[in-house]
Amino acid sequence: MATGIRKQRIAVVTVGLLASAAFMYLAVRRLDFGSLRSVLASARIWPWVPLGILSYVGGHVLRGQRCRLLVSKDASLGLGTASNVVVVGYASNNVFPARLGEFVRAGMLAERTGMPVAQSLVVTFIERVFDGLAILVLLVLGTLSGNAPPWMHELVRVALVVFGSACAVMVLGAHSPSFVVTAASRIGTKLGEKWHDRLVALATSITSAGACLRSPRDAISIALYSLLIWTLEAGLFIALLPAFGLPLRFATGAVAMSVTNLGLLVPSSPGFVGPFHFFCSRAVMASGVAEATALGYATVVHLAFFVPVTLWGAGAMLWYGVQVGATAAMARAARKEAKTTLVQGIQVHEVASLPRVRVEETTTPFVRALVEAVVVPEGTQASTAVIDDTAVFVYGQLRELPPSLGLLFECGMTFFRFVTRLRYLRGYCNLSLDTRRRWLHAWAESPYALFRKLMKPIRGVALLGYYDHPITRASILESPEALLAPASLVRGKELDTKTAAEAQS
C-alpha cells in the first residue's frame, strides 16, 4: 500500500517537472538571450512593481473575505485567519507540484473551522468555479477589441464549456441537496453498507459546502467578490506594463492575467515555472510585443506573483504551527493538573474558554434605513423600538422570498444602492432621513414600472409590520389622527380630510 502511494507521488512530481520543462523550452526556444538581458536591465522597477504587488496582495485579502462568506453557515472565521488559510494554499502551490497546495489549504480550513475535509475541498472547488467564471469575463472584456488571435478565441470557448459545466454541477449541489443525498444513498445501497455511509457523508458535505449559494444575496456577493479579486490580480499584470515601456492598457493586462491563469491549470513544477512564463509571454506577444520584452515582462511578473505570497504563506504556516503547539501544550497542562469541570453532568478537562457563539443576523442597517424612510412621515417621529422590530419583520419576510424572486430583488437593490452612491457620493444609510425618504419615494413614484415594482415589497411589508405593531396600534387608539400618516405614501396626490375620515371608519 505504502509503495503504491509512493509511486503515485513520484509519478505526479515527474509529470509536473516534465510539463514545466516542456513549457520552458517552448518559451525560450527561439529567444535571443542577449535581448532578454538588455530588457531586464532596462526595466523600471519603481513604482510599478510595488504598485502591482499591492494590488495582488489586496486581492488575497478579498479572497479571505470571500472564504469567510462561503463558510459562514457553518463557522465564524476572522478576516485575518481566512486570508492566512487562502494564502497558505497559494504558497503551498509555489512549493509543491501539481497544485497539491489545494489539499494543504483544505486541511487547514477544516482544522480552523471544524468542518470535514471533504466539505473544505468542496468549498475550494466552489471558489475555483467562481474564479474561472471571473477570469473568463475579464478575458472576454480584454478581447473585445477584436485583435485577439484565433487560439485565444478557442481558449474562451474551451473555458466556457469547462467552467459552465462545473457551474451547473455546483448549482445542482447547492439548490437540490435532497436530490444529491438521495442519489448518493441509492448508489451506496447497491455497493454495500460501508460504501453507503461514506457516500451519504460525502454528499452531505457537498451540499453543506454549497449552503451559502442558496441565498441570492450571498451568491451575488461571492460573484462580485470573485470579479473584484481577479480585477485586482489583473492590476499586477497591468501595473508592470509601463516598467517595460509598454502602454498602460487594461485589455493587455487582463488578457495576460486570464491566459496565464487558465494555463496554470496544467500540472507543473512548484511555482508554475515554465507554464507561467510561456502563457504570459504568449498573451503579451499577441498584442504585438517583441518576444524578448514579453519574456522579460513574464519573468518579473512571476517574481512579483511568487515571492510576496510565498513569504506571507511561510509566515502564516509558522504562526499556525505556534498556535497548534500552544494548544497542545494547554491540553497537556490541563490533563497534568487534572483541572476539570462539569458540562451537562459530564466531567471534562478544561483547556480554554470557548469562542463566542455566532449570532444569526436578524436585519441589516440598509433594511432598517429603508423601513424608517417608508414608515416615518415627514415632520414626525417614530419609536426606535417599533422601527427596529419592523426592520426585523421586513428582513425575515424578504428572506422567505422564492430563490428566483429573491435573486431579482437583490439585483435591483444592488443597482439602487449603486445609483444612490453615484447620486449622493455616499451610501444610502449615511443619508439624512429626509433625503432617504425623498429618494425612496422618487423611485417608488417613478415613471419606470421596474423602479416602482422594486419598492413595492419594502413599502407594503414595512407598512404592514409598522401598523400591526402593538405600540403603533395603542397609539392609534389613543390618537386616531395618527392614521393620517399613510396619506403621504399615496402616489401622485394626498388624501383629503374626507378620504382620511373614510379610512378611519
Please describe the structure with a list of short key phrases separated by commas or semicolons.
72% helix; mainly alpha; two-stranded antiparallel sheet; disordered C terminus; globular; 2 domains; single chain; 505 residues; 20 helices
How would the blueprint of this fold be written?
Blueprint: H1 2-28, H2 33-42, H3 48-70, H4 79-93, H5 101-113, H6 117-142, H7 150-175, H8 177-191, H9 193-209, H10 216-239, H11 250-263, H12 275-285, H13 291-337, E1 340-343, E2 346-349, H14 365-375, H15 384-399, H16 403-424, H17 433-444, H18 449-467, H19 470-478, H20 497-504
Antiparallel strand pairs: 1-2
Helix pairs in contact: 1-12, 2-13, 3-4, 3-10, 3-13, 4-5, 4-13, 5-6, 6-7, 6-9, 6-10, 6-11, 8-9, 10-11, 11-12, 12-13, 14-15, 14-17, 14-18, 15-18
Structure characterization notes:
The chain has 505 residues and is an all-alpha fold. It folds into two domains: 2-324, no CATH class; 367-504. 72% of the residues lie in helices and 2% in strands. It is built from 20 helices and two strands. A two-stranded antiparallel ribbon has the order 1-2. Helix 2 crosses helix 13 and helix 3 (48-70) packs across helix 13. The model is unreliable at 484-505 (pLDDT under 50).
